[in-house]
Amino acid sequence: MNQTTKKTVKRQPRPPAQKTPPRRDLAPDRIAAILGALDEAYPEVECALNHRSPWELLVATILSAQCTDVRVNMVTPELFRRFPTPAAMAQATLPQLEALIRTTGFFHNKAKSIQGAARKIVAEFGGQVPQTLDELITIPGAARKTANVVLGVCFKKAEGVVVDTHVFRIARRLNLAKGDTAQKVEQELMRILPQDRWIAFSHQLIHHGRQICDARKPKCDRCNLEPLCHSQDKTWQS
Ligand code: SF4
Question: From its phi and psi, is residue 66 left (phi > 0), alpha (psi between -120 and 50) or beta?
């Protein structure tokens, strides 16, 4: 008689799950490494908008909304030749301004903004661009980003971090910020970056965005931040 013997299989205890250590994206040493890599790649960054004074940079920055800096640099020489100061531009008519800035796009609104800015600066600031964030953001066309550009570049004052489309995108790709608006990202960056890096950091990220970290197809194989970057849309992994 065949007897089937039941084999009892002894279950082996499962090995404990391997815990992946949490990434410390905001650890000071990682942030220092990112800042170091940016310094290495962009040691001498400058504002790409041509200007000779705070007034010219203010106007150029207003014109740069939804427009390339190259295009703005093409229209500002003639604009400032015709209307070199806030007092002169305050006298300009909207059709005159529109004709000069037409190629920068949204020219009706931009003409109103720069005419309004000129009039405000003449009427309330003695013809001089003010040097505080609170005053600058009262100027037509000058929101926080424009104010931070002028303060940082012309007056070397770091009252905030310039968050344009490049800074917004790359700060999020590098997990330095998660906010879904420029203002939220700015607040996050202000919390984690040393204040003496606020001005250079923005310029460096703007250059990085233009040259390497493209919105659609980042050139990760040419990026010296790549070992520090965990972005989901990387195109190359070392
Ligand atoms: S590795 Fe790629 S996605 Fe990350 S910062 Fe560099 S270019 Fe941008």
Answer: left
pTM: 0.84
Counting as low any pLDDT under 70, the low residues of the chain are: 1-11, 15-23
Q: Are 198 and 153 in contact (CB under 8 A)?
A: no
Rounded to the nearest 10 degrees, how much is the dihedral formed by the CA atoms of 98, 85, 66, 163? -160
3-state secondary structure of 23: coil
Residue 83: count other Cβ atoms within 10 Å of its Cβ: 21
Interval 155-180: pLDDT, tens: 999 999 999 999 999 999 999 999 99
User: Is the shortest distance between the CB of 172 and ligand 1 below 6 Å?
Assistant: no
Cβ of 38 closer than 6 Å to ligand 1, yes or no, is no
Name which residue sits closest to atom 3 of ligand 1, judged by CA: 234
Taking CA atoms only, the protein residue closest to ligand 1 atom 4 is 229
**Contact between 47 and 154 (Cβ < 8 Å):** no
Are 209 and 165 spatial neighbours (Cβ–Cβ below 8 Å)? yes
Q: Does 220 contact ligand 1 (Cβ within 6 A)?
A: yes
Give nearest CA residue, ligand 1 atom 1: 226
